[in-house]
TrEMBL record:
Transmembrane segments: none annotated. This is Malate dehydrogenase. InterPro entries: L-lactate/malate_DH (IPR001557), Lactate/malate_DH_C (IPR022383), Lactate/malate_DH_N (IPR001236), Lactate_DH/Glyco_Ohase_4_C (IPR015955), Malate_DH_AS (IPR001252), Malate_DH_NAD-dep_euk (IPR011274), Malate_DH_type2 (IPR010945), NAD(P)-bd_dom_sf (IPR036291). It is an enzyme of class 1 (oxidoreductase). NAD(+) binds at D47, N110, V134, G135, N136. Residues 11-157 form the Lactate/malate dehydrogenase N-terminal domain. It holds the Pfam family Ldh_1_C. The active site is at H192 (proton acceptor). Belongs to the LDH/MDH superfamily. MDH type 2 family. Keywords: NAD, Oxidoreductase, Tricarboxylic acid cycle. One of its GO terms (molecular function) is L-malate dehydrogenase (NAD+) activity.
Length: 338
């Protein structure tokens, strides 16, 4: 973990770099918490022109951290500069929702950003770039981004549902008064929205040294099928109601978890939740950006296959798929109307 690392720096673009999530995220990246303690980084920091003054302040703070892994921080309002030769692209820049809104209410305002940035990503980024979309509505923005970046492999695109995954783990852990790390293999299916299906049917929890199915440990199917699910589905709105701002610290942590697992691989026999471009697994429309249980080995993402889907789960999955199809159609309309 020193400036004498022999590794070549990787280039990471963060969009929305003057915003609140980026402010929590940048330090963790610069500190080596995501890409490794021996991996130097060059940050490309994109925001809109009126935010260049604020972004300059963020760059001053990056310098003042004196972290040895940082080999450069480039503030810019130019998409070409931002996406040029990047290895990793974190798409955070977009309008957040306010109290009383659903995330899809942001679609008209945000989806055009992803059309423009997808086109630039296609032109300027490395073809191996690993892409994570965070800005809401995250799945549909990722769909549009990928559509406008056709030369980048489909498996390089993802959207963030790790925050929902972490929220689900935390709810189970709190209920059982254990540490969240003891909870494994929860799944977020579908959209990062209030139709998502937080599923713990194949999750386990380590209680007193023994891995036990979550349903057996909790012993309250009614809670698991109702309050648990709606708490996770509505957690983002609850944070906004309390903070008057959307989640940022927990979102930045989830971005780090998502990218660290993509970079290093998931643990044996464990999976995480990621929105990826569907290959039709579990009868989901091919091409939709859908959150699935995911395992990663040598940088390669695969959807966990063969999990049993009962009638109730199928209904939950259909509901979130239906919303994603509607969002996709609205997004395509919004991006082709001008
Ligand atoms: N997927 C998730 O789990 C998750 C979690 C939390 C927040 N979010 C979403 O992330 C987004 C950012 O949240 P935030 O709290 O950081 O918002 P914020 O308003 O604090 O920051 C957003 C930043 O993006 C910038 N921006 C706007 N348009 C841009 C463009 N075209 N190019 C580059 N930058 C642009 C803004 O100027 C601002 O600095 C929101 O859409 C929010 O809803 C998603
Ligand atoms: O809920 C929001 O709008 C912000 C974010 O997507 C979240 O889940 O906290």
């Amino acid at each position: 973990m020193s400036s004498s690392s022999t590794k070549e720096p990787i280039r990471i673009v963060i969009t929305g770099a003057a915003g609140q999530i980026a402010y929590s995220l940048i330090h963790q990246i610069c500190n080596g918490d995501v890409f490794g303690k021996d991996q130097p980084v060059i940050l490309h920091l994109l925001d809109i022109t009126p935010m260049m003054g604020v972004l300059q302040g963020v760059v001053m703070e990056i310098e003042d951290t004196s972290l040895p892994l940082v080999k450069g921080a480039i503030p810019t309002d130019s998409e070409e500069t931002a996406f040029k030769d990047v290895d990793v692209a974190l798409f955070v820049g977009a309008m957040p929702r306010k109290e009383g809104m659903e995330r899809k209410d942001l679609l008209n305002a945000n989806v055009k950003i992803f059309k423009s940035q997808g086109t630039a990503l296609d032109k300027f980024a490395k073809k191996s770039v690993k892409v994570l979309v965070v800005g809401n509505p995250a799945n549909t923005n990722c769909y549009i981004l990928a559509h406008y970046a056709p030369s980048i492999p489909r498996e390089n695109f993802s959207c963030l549902t790790r925050l929902d995954h972490n929220r689900a783990k935390a709810q189970i852990a709190n209920r059982l008064k254990v540490s969240p790390e003891n909870v494994k293999n929860v799944i977020i299916w579908g959209n990062h929205s209030s139709t998502q299906f937080p599923d713990v049917r194949s999750a386990t929890v380590n209680v007193n040294g023994k891995d036990t199915p979550v349903y057996d440990a909790i012993k309250d199917d009614n809670w698991l099928k109702n309050d648990f699910i709606s708490t996770v589905q509505k957690r983002g709105a609850a944070v906004i109601a309390a903070r008057k701002l959307s989640s940022a610290m927990s979102a930045a942590k989830a971005i780090c978890d998502h990218m660290r697992d993509w970079w290093n691989g998931t643990k044996d026999n464990e999976w995480v939740s990621m929105g990826v471009i569907s290959d039709g697994s579990y009868d989901i429309e091919k091409g939709l950006v859908f959150s699935y249980p995911i395992q990663i080995k040598d940088g390669k993402i695969s959807i966990v296959q063969g999990l049993k889907i009962d009638d109730w789960s199928r209904e939950m999955i259909e509901k979130t798929q239906k919303e994603l199809v509607e969002e996709k159609n609205d997004a395509v309309k919004a991006t082709t109307s001008d």
